Every structure is written in C-alpha cells, then in structure tokens.
Amino acid sequence: MSTPKPVDCWLTDMDGVLVHEQHPIPGASEFIEALRTSGRRFLVLTNNSIYTPRDLRARLSRSGIDLPEESIWTSALATAQFLDTQRPGGTAYTIGEAGLTTALHDVGYVLTDRDPDYVVLGETRTYSFEAITRAIRLIEAGARFIATNPDPTGPSAEGSLPATGSVAALISRATGVEPYFVGKPNPLMMRSALNRIDAHSESTVMVGDRMDTDIVSGLEAGLRTVLVLTGSTRAEQVERFPYRPTRVVDSVADLVPLVQELTPGD
C-alpha cells in the first residue's frame, strides 16, 4: 500500500461547513485563518451560483470570516470556464443571477434569447414562468442545456426552497432533454478548482458536509475527503453510503490543529 503524499492544498465547501444561513459555524473563522497563515493553497467551493465571489466575500466578512475574493470558486465560475473550453465566444440564454451572468460575460459570452448556443440554468430566487417557457422553446429549437448544479432544494430561514435541480427537472420533463450539470457532485468542478490553484489531487483534501455531493465528488476526483457533521449528512447516515470519507469530524474546528501542525511539503 502506497504512503499518502503530504497535504499541501485544501478545498472546502461553504454552506454547512463554514456557515449556516450567514451564521458562522464555530471554528470556521479559525480554520480559514489557519489556512491563510500556513501558506497553503486553498479554495472555498459553493454550488450556489447566485452571488459573485465579491458578493460572497462581503457576506462571509459580515459573518466574521475573512476570505479573499480569489479564494472562492462557485458553480457559476466552473460553468463559465467549462463553456469557454467547449465553445469559446459562444452565446447563451440564462436563467440566473449576477453570479452566473457576470461569470459568462467575463469569459466573453454574449447573453441572448435569439438562437443561443446554450440555455444555462442557475440559481435564482425569482424563477419566472415566462423565462422557463422561453428556455423550453429554445431547447426544443436546438439549444444545448447546461445547469450549474443539480441541488433540488436550497436552505432558507423559513425552510427549503426549490433550487436548480428542481427547475431543471421541470424543463427536462417538458423537453425530453437532460442538462449537463457542472457543479458538485460532478468531479469536473473539483478538477477546475485544482487547476485554479495549481494543486494535485494526491496532495489535496476536500472538506464537505454532504456525502452525496462533496464527498463523492472529492472521491471521484482522487482527493482525500473529510466529512464534517455540521451540515446535511448526519453521523448515523454515513454507513448507508457505498463509499466512505477518509475522515469524519464534528466540525472544521477539529481541523485547525491539523492545518497548524504541518507546513507544505512536510
């Protein structure tokens, strides 16, 4: 059995690991600070495509977590990068917010409802019947269907909200066309994050709170994985899955000493 390489880089999910509805999880600020002062390369990942990295930095800052804008990687950014590699300078009809439209503009995409190359579905709090109908008709006319992430619901203070996966299912049922989901659990998002920080899978750890997105995508991308029990997956649910994380901890607070103990290359 080969000896694992030292951990030089970290990827971590945001919701359920660092924050709950903008409320910081105990130890999250210390975990990010330990990563920053250690000199390790790291990224915070989120399937939420509503916000730009600048927006998310401001939101996290209000929660007491000091995170550089460039250390945030969203499903919207991963989607834009993917489309740029597939069809540079293309066109898209989007359903989503600034996080998605800004990412697509930044890679040179033109947003249009006239014969677009793609229909791109992202997260929004204002899904409209008219926009969904337009998306259906464009897909029927030949536009390729992309979605930022498959999450069926999202959290709110009042309870669950329908999310990208649920609206994608509606459009798929109407058109008979399944979308290509870019965000977690697609390991494509992990690989794009690794490329972003010039990291290697064998020396990188993925920290997440969901077995069915964070842990499986990290596993399939060849990363070591840590499940924290502060989010979606409960301790008694772990054994139900046919795969296991490398480690299970109560929260990111338990990882602070590990980050502080080692320096890159140790």
Features:
20% strand; 266 residues; 9 helices; 15 strands; single chain; 2 domains; alpha/beta; Rossmann fold; six-stranded parallel sheet
Question: How would you characterize this protein structure?
Answer:
With 266 residues, this protein is α/β, with parallel strands linked by helices. The chain has 2 domains: 9-47 and 184-261, Rossmann fold (3-Layer(aba) Sandwich), CATH 3.40.50; 76-181, 3-Layer(aba) Sandwich (Rossmann fold). The chain is 35% helix and 20% strand. The protein is built from 9 helices and 15 strands. Strands 5-4-1-13-14-15 form a 6-stranded parallel β-sheet. A 5-stranded parallel β-sheet has the order 7-6-8-9-12, with helices on both faces. Strands 2-3 form a two-stranded antiparallel ribbon. Helix 3 (75-86) crosses helix 7. The longest helix is centred in the first third of the chain and has 12 residues, at 75-86. The two termini are 20 Å apart.
Characterize this entry briefly.
This protein has 266 residues and is α/β, with parallel strands linked by helices. Helix content is 35%, strand content 20%.
* Secondary structure: number of strands: 15
For the report, how would you describe the main beta sheet? 6 strands, parallel
Assign a percent range to the helix content: 25-40%
- What number of structural domains do the residues give? 2
Average the pLDDT over all residues and give the rounded result: 93
Q: Which strands sit side by side, in order, in the main sheet?
A: 5-4-1-13-14-15
CATH topology of the largest domain: Rossmann fold
What percent of residues are in strands?
A: 15-25%
Q: By helix and strand content, what is the structural category?
A: alpha/beta
- What series of H and E elements makes up the topology? EEEHEHEHEHEEHEEEHEHEHEEH
Radius of gyration (Å): 18 Å
Low-pLDDT residue intervals, each spanning 5 or more residues:
none
Specify the CATH architecture of the largest domain.
3-Layer(aba) Sandwich
The dominant shape is globular
Measured between the Cα atoms of the first and last residue, the distance is 20 Å
Query: CATH homologous superfamily of the largest domain?
Result: HAD superfamily/HAD-like
